[in-house]
C-alpha cells in the first residue's frame, strides 16, 4: 500500500516538471584548457611545416652529444648480509610428556615453552628436593639466575578440596527465625 502512495506523489505533474527543466536556459560550459585549442591549430599547414622542418643548429648540437652507460661494480657486503642471521640458533626438542599435542615441538636453547614452564613449576612444587634450580637449569638448558627468578616469582595454582565434614557443617546450620 505504501508503494502506491509514493508512486502517486512521484508521478504527480511529471509532464509540467519535465517541460520546465527542458525550457531552462543551459549554463555556459567552462572554458577549455589551451592544449585543446592546439589540436585545432595543428591542422593548419604553417604549424605542420614548422614541426616537420629540420633545424641544422639543433642537429649539430645533437651530434655532439655522446652518452656512455656503465653498470656500477657489484659489491659484496662483508657482514654476510644484514637480513640473514649470522649465527644459526640451536634448537632442542621439548620435554612434554602427555601434553605433547598442545605445544610447539622445537624451542631455542635458553628458552622454554609454556607447557614446559608449567610442568617444571609443578614438579618443583611437588618435589622441591629432587627438582632443584640447578637440575631444572641443566634439564631445560636455562641459566641458573633465570630459573631462580622463575621459581621465586611464579607459583602454579593449587586445587583444594574441602573435607566432607566441613560441607556438612556449612549445610547443617539452620537459618535463624526472625521474631
Provide structural commentary:
This protein is mostly helical. It has a domain at 91-154. Helix content is 47%, strand content 3%. The protein has helices spanning 2-11, 14-23, 34-42, 45-52, 56-64, 114-126, 133-140, 144-153, 164-171; strands at residues 91-93, 106-108. Helix 7 packs across helix 8. It is flat, with a radius of gyration of 45 Å. The mean pLDDT is 77. Residues 17-42 are annotated as: Disordered. This is NADH dehydrogenase [ubiquinone] 1 alpha subcomplex assembly factor 4. It holds the Pfam family UPF0240. Binds calmodulin. Interacts with NDUFAF3.
- The N- and C-terminal alpha carbons lie at a distance of 68 Å
Name the assembly state: single chain
Radius of gyration from the CA trace? 45 Å
Q: Give helix and strand order, one letter per element, not per position.
A: HHHHHEEHHHH
Structural class by helix and strand composition: mainly alpha
Region (Disordered): 17-42
Family: Belongs to the NDUFAF4 family.
Organism: Calcarius ornatus
Protein name: NADH dehydrogenase [ubiquinone] 1 alpha subcomplex assembly factor 4
What are the SSEs and their pairings?
Blueprint: H1 2-11, H2 14-23, H3 34-42, H4 45-52, H5 56-64, E1 91-93, E2 106-108, H6 114-126, H7 133-140, H8 144-153, H9 164-171
Antiparallel strand pairs: 1-2
InterPro entries: NDUFAF4
Protein name: NADH dehydrogenase [ubiquinone] 1 alpha subcomplex assembly factor 4
Organism: Calcarius ornatus
Amino acid at each position: 500500500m505504501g508503494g502506491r502512495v509514493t508512486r502517486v506523489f512521484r508521478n504527480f505533474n511529471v509532464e509540467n516538471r519535465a517541460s520546465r527543466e527542458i525550457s531552462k536556459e543551459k549554463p555556459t560550459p567552462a572554458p577549455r584548457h589551451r592544449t585543446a585549442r592546439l589540436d585545432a591549430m595543428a591542422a593548419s599547414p604553417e604549424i605542420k611545416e614548422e614541426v616537420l622542418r629540420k633545424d641544422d643548429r639543433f642537429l649539430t648540437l645533437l651530434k655532439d652529444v655522446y652518452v656512455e652507460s656503465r653498470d656500477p661494480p657489484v659489491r659484496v657486503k662483508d657482514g654476510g648480509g644484514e637480513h640473514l642471521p649470522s649465527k644459526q640458533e640451536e634448537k632442542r626438542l621439548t620435554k612434554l610428556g602427555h601434553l605433547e599435542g598442545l605445544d610447539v615441538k622445537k624451542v631455542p636453547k635458553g628458552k622454554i615453552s609454556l607447557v614446559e614452564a608449567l610442568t617444571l613449576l609443578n614438579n618443583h612444587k611437588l618435589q622441591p628436593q629432587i627438582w632443584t634450580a640447578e637440575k631444572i637449569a641443566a634439564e631445560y638448558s636455562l641459566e641458573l639466575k633465570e630459573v631462580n627468578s622463575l621459581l621465586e616469582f611464579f607459583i602454579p595454582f593449587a586445587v583444594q578440596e574441602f573435607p566432607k565434614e566441613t560441607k556438612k557443617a556449612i549445610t547443617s546450620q539452620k537459618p535463624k527465625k526472625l521474631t
